[in-house]
Amino acid sequence: MSTHQITLTVNGASHSVQTEARTLLVHLIREQLNLTGTHIGCDTSSCGACTVIVNGRAIKSCTMFAVQADGATIETIEGLAGAGLHPLQEGFWEKHGLQCGYCTPGMIMSAKALLAQNPNPSEEEIRYGISGNLCRCTGYVKIVEAIQYAAAKLREQQTQEVPA
Amino acid sequence: MSDQLDPLRALDEAGERHLPDRVERHTPKPAGSSAIVETSHEVRVTTPATVCGMGHRMKRKEDPRFIQGRGTYVDDVKLPGMLYMDIVRSPYAHARITKIDASEALKVPGVLAVITGEDLKQAGNLHWMPTLMSDTQMVLPIEKVVYYAQEVCVVVATDRYAAADGVEKVVVEYDPLPVVVDPFEALKDETIVRDDKELKTNHIWHWEAGDREATEHVFRSAAKVVKQYMHIPRIHVASIETCGMVADFNKATGKLKIWMTSQAPHAHRTVFALVSGIPEHKIQIISPDIGGGFGGKVPVYPGYVCCVVASIVTGRPVKWIEDRSENLQADSFARDYHITAEMAADADGRITGLRVRTLADNGAADAAANPSKFPAGLYSICTGSYDMRAAHIAVDGVYTNKPPGGVAYRCSFRVTEAVHMIERMTDIMAHELGEDPAAFRLKNFIRPEQFPYRSPTGWEYDSGNYHAALKLAMEMIGYEELRREQAEKRTRGELMGIGISSFTEVVGAGPSRDYDILGIKMFDSAEIRIHPTGKAIARFGTKSQGQGHETTYAQIIAEELGIPAEHVEVEEGDTDTAPYGLGTYASRSTPTAGAAAAVAARKIRAKARTIAAYLLEVSEDDLEWSVDRWQVKGSPEQHKTIQDIAFAAYTNHPPGVEAGLEATDYYDPPNLTFPFGSYICVVDIDTGTGEVKIRRFVAVDDCGNIINPLVVEGQIHGGLTMGLAPALFEEIVYDENGQNLTGTFMDYLLPTAVETPKWEIGKTITPSPHHPIGAKGVGESPTVGAPPAIANAVVDALWHLGVRHIDIPITPQKVWKLLRDHGITE
Ligand code: FES
Ligand code: FES
User: Fold this and answer.
1) Is B720:B726 a contact under the CB 8 Å cutoff?
2) Which of A118, A156, B163, B361 lies 20 to 30 A from B740 at CA?
3) Nearest by CB: A96 against B60, B754, B758
4) Residue-wise pLDDT tens digits, B449-463
5) Catalytic residues of B, which ones?
6) Which residues of B touch A34 (CB under 8 A)?
7) Phi (first) and psi of residue A16, to 5 degrees
């Protein structure tokens, strides 16, 4: 098994790590970088619990080799909050968008990528946008509300940043 | 099942081999008040927002860690020197093992050990373990495997990749045996699944409830009888977190510390102590954050036991985390009941009786997670919401070459099967009589003044108002208008259906006189300690897997003591610190531990009164309680708040009174609780593809008094979605060789946000008269109530074509076939 030295930027911090060619990105994130907020829920790229943002795109990190992320910029749930909670985190808390919390980090990262592309999604667009993420607890209604909450808040923040 | 077989006949033929009959009996509840309980529509709130007691929509206290990726699930636990375990599984559903050769596996870099059934036998007969139903189950086999994906041996290595490499290299030779997958075939005893047993039969038990003779009598005089066979198929809870463990046996201290995906850590500790011989005080089980349970984390699986053994053998911590495919293929299933039901009605269209024969496919062991005396769980609740004269239920359990189980899938012990049957039968009867299914239900419901109601199978329903719930659901959805629309659409050849389910749940197991698991009575517990500054910690014998206990238990204590919920830390899941309890499943947490929280808090309030009287220099009788304080009657400015009293309990306690302010309660409920609801579903069916589209779904639930409306809404949404899933999508399917054809999320379809409708919910509130805070439990009602509403809607859309019943899951293929058979599509 070949070993490789790779460099990646995760939540703003640069890491240079040794990894086997077959190591999945999700295992590198969880076990070598100790960022355990990203979860694993399946072995067929079906559940989305492992979703992180790689170079701006939501990616299922169980379906990518760590070596493929060499040089990439990665965001995980741990990097989301700045001085305060991110509007998505706030929305999930406010609207009760989580129960066991296991799908939540992946769900939030998918939603973040969705809102970056489409800041004002319809309910249907939100539902399709998170259709790669399974939640067994919530029935999705409150997840949709949480994302709507965040979308509104993010749009509001944007208009405040760019005065007319 | 084989189409040719009449299930009743097959069961009767098996009758000769019956084990001694088990007949369900309910010990009468001690006499209590029987006043009629009023129904309201408003959530009761008695504390200000600063206290946040019952009824407040408090944001959950557990959420900040989850939304920031800072929860701690089992797979997040990492210990120095930790090893990883992986499992070699059987490719056959029934085969003799002729050889296990681990030599190549042991050459794989990083592989340290391979543990087989023979090794477990040497270690003290650990190759078998008891199930929760007092049956036995293999941990690792020595002679033969009895289901596909059964654990055969385990590999321990320095990391998970090496362990997986080791699994690839273990050579196991098998001699395949005939496989029995169909439970009706199993009854013929041509292939014996469990030849380790003295009795060479697949028939495990026969159980009855109700009154056979009275029921025969009712059927003889019936004006109308309807009969239907239905299969409630095998499904899987599929919580997004699979099962797993980190076991750490410390040879120096003799202590075994375990992190485990456990819904019942205390019971599991006792089981581990009894099976392993390690003294119970040297075992600590920590059930950390759990990524959904739904019943799947109640049983002890072979992987857990092997993981513990691996740690003892290697002297190092060992982690085992299931793959999703292992989880779906080998962990406990739910349902798998083959039901033949008959319902009788009189000339006025009143239901008079119910007769049910059921074959329960248990797989290769009776490992159902039921209270000991209830092999078919609480299935005899199946007369449901309807007042009838007599009922008789018989269930037979059978072994097949499938994984063992019989867990809940977010329901109270077999109530979903019961509700599906009675709600389908009620609909069939209404349609056969040409009556509107809503009107037929309103006519046949148990009336509010009949509560507490004694059912024909012996249950005493605590409170209910079924008419109010159904009428509200009809109003919310615009029932009459929908019926008009349906009639009109039918003239145009469009297929639209309206389905109702008016279910009665039975939860909160249970009173110690009838309920135990492995002999341990099904009480639950709370321990509350108030700190000198008036803050508190409360510990419980239950374990949240997403239900929000850290918030709702705090709110109960806030309600009783006036300590802000924000100031109450709730802890569960560590057996070294929490009081003993039976855990969280079957919607029992609020009925049992929630009650214990209230009662323990009231004990503290009583002691607080003594302290307040001492501080105010008045008699205790002169004091009255108000929100968060004891005050002098008629002069409320003279008072001591709970915070003042807590401080005094440690700094200035009355002479002759113990210092400190804490209490424990082990709550043994006097009865179960009976939540209920009425659901209405509207479907449109694509006449070309057979696809069922849920247009609207209205759910009115009554779970008694509400602790936190936000949490209750979430529980209902989630439960409805886990009701939708088996109604339309999920089924564990086996081929004739016992191979699981639905072993991944590619084939076992969980609903995503796209398939899930926007649930519309409403409520009525009919408190439980015997529960200290009048609550009933809610997490599972919707899972129980939703499937028949959906199935009834689909059949309602197709009834005029001659369709009487469709087994769930109602897939587009099934509907399309019916449409084709009836000439609707080609
Ligand atoms: S773990 Fe399920 S999609 Fe990655
Ligand atoms: S909150 Fe449990 S899986 Fe989504």
Assistant:
1) no
2) B163
3) B60
4) 999 999 999 999 999
5) 263, 410-411, 780
6) 78
7) -115, 115
